[in-house]
Amino acid sequence: MTGTDLQGGTAFAPTPLDRDARVYVAGHRGLVGSAIARKLEAEGFTDVVGRTSSVLDLKDRDAVFAFFAETKPRYVVLAAAKVGGILANSTFPVEFLSDNLRIQTNVMDAALGQRVERLLFLGSSCIYPKLAPQPIKEDTLLTGHLEETNDAYAIAKIAGILGVQSVRREYGLPWISAMPTNLYGPNDNFSPKGSHVLPALIRRYDEARAAGSGSVTNWGTGNPRREFLHVDDMADACLHLLEHYDGPAQVNVGTGTDVTIREIAETVAEVVGYTGDTEWDTTKPDGTPQKLLDVTRLADAGWTARIGLREGLESTVDWYRTHAGALRG
Fold first, then answer.
1. What is the Cα Rg of the chain in Å?
2. Which of 130, 138, 220, 268 could form a disulfide with 286 if both were Cys (CB 3.0 to 4.6 A apart)?
3. d(CA 89, CA 82)
4. What is the structure's pLDDT at 289?
5. Cβ atoms within 10 Å, residue 221
6. Do residues 307 and 184 lie in contact, with contact meaning Cβ atoms separated by under 8 Å?
7. What is the pLDDT of residue 286?
8. Element (H, E) at 225
9. Bond before 135 cis per omega within 30 degrees
10. 235, 39 contact by CB (below 8 A)
11. What would the pLDDT profile of 113-146 be if each residue is shown by its tens digit?
């Protein structure tokens, strides 16, 4: 690393990470963080650390700074966030904005104070305009209005991207950002009120199957199109980016293909073995009409998704059934 440019670039050539260096995964119990921790350990990393929210509240600035001063991680993956589906985002915008801004700012400031060598910030595809041209390229950021049902969360994630870019410009540290599409897999949130669309569908259809219900009702028309990526693929992409990519712009992480909500509901019903009817409550919001990411930059960096949707759904349903008794209500 020899300096910076005004666009936030660094003269840095990514290389394989030191497997014996300390890596802090913020949010290591969540959907993404747990997958990243598993991936790192499987790849031979010997010092992966994390703290539960009961031990370290990332909204507590003093506590976060003390943690970084004590542990001194060389690498950081910032996967911690307050997340939820349409209902949670639209009901609690203050919490989604405030909590995520504080988590991100505290972790990044503390990491900067320790001059963490490499940090990966994870955002969300909801940062892009509601009516962005499809597939969505990274440079469409801030070119239009956001989806109203999750704008507070999106603004917090956009602030995180700017935080990474600002550190690059001012301090020359080669931090990067990745924006995943809709994720699913082990350790997802299957709560009826707090989950995203796919885990919500898995729980809804599996409970209907177990109860012998004749019909299931889903929100909206079923027409919006969504892209889904298994979280183990996401974890693999994160490590790949840390070792092969550097640049100020966020990198889209997805499969490059999408399906309608109606199609994914039908597939979930088949996988769980539900044979009843599906109805659609069109008085409820659909959200963004389509969110398909352009993954050209990711492909240019040498990575493509490997886990097919049907395969990923089958393994996720198996995990859900195994852990159903211990999941959040």
1. 20
2. 220
3. 10
4. 85
5. 15
6. no
7. 87
8. strand 225-226
9. yes
10. yes
11. 999 999 999 999 999 999 999 999 999 999 999 9
Q: Nearest Cα to 255, choosing from 145, 142, 152, 135?
A: 135
| pLDDT for res 304 | 98
CA atoms lying within 13 Å on the CB side of residue 43: 22
**CA gap 176, 268 in Å, rounded:** 34
Tokens of 68: 């970084």
Is residue 320 among the annotated active site residues?
no
Beta carbons of 253 and 298 less than 8 angstroms apart: yes
Give me the residue label for tokens 């499987």: 42
Handedness of CA 267, 269, 271, 275 (dihedral sign): negative
What domains, with CATH codes, occur in the chain?
Answer: 22-185+228-256+292-306 (3.40.50.720)
pTM metric for this prediction: 0.92
- Retrieve residue 198's tokens: 């796919």
Amino acid at 142: L
Residue 109 sits at the vertex; the CA angle it makes with 103 and 113, to the nearest 5 degrees, is 145
Residue entry with tokens 């209005």:
145
Active-site annotation holder among 153, 245, 274, 320? 153
| Structural contact between residues 12 and 1, judged by C-beta atoms closer than 8 angstroms | yes
User: In the structure encoding, which two tokens stand for residue 232, read together?
Assistant: 């183990």
CA neighbor of 115 nearest in space, from 174, 50, 178, 49: 174
Match 């690498």 to its residue by tokens. 75
Task: Please report, in angstroms and rounded to a whole number, the separation of the first and last CA atoms in the chain.
Answer: 48
CA distance 24 to 183: 21
Contacts of 108 (CB under 8 A, 6+ apart): 78, 119, 121, 160, 163, 164, 167
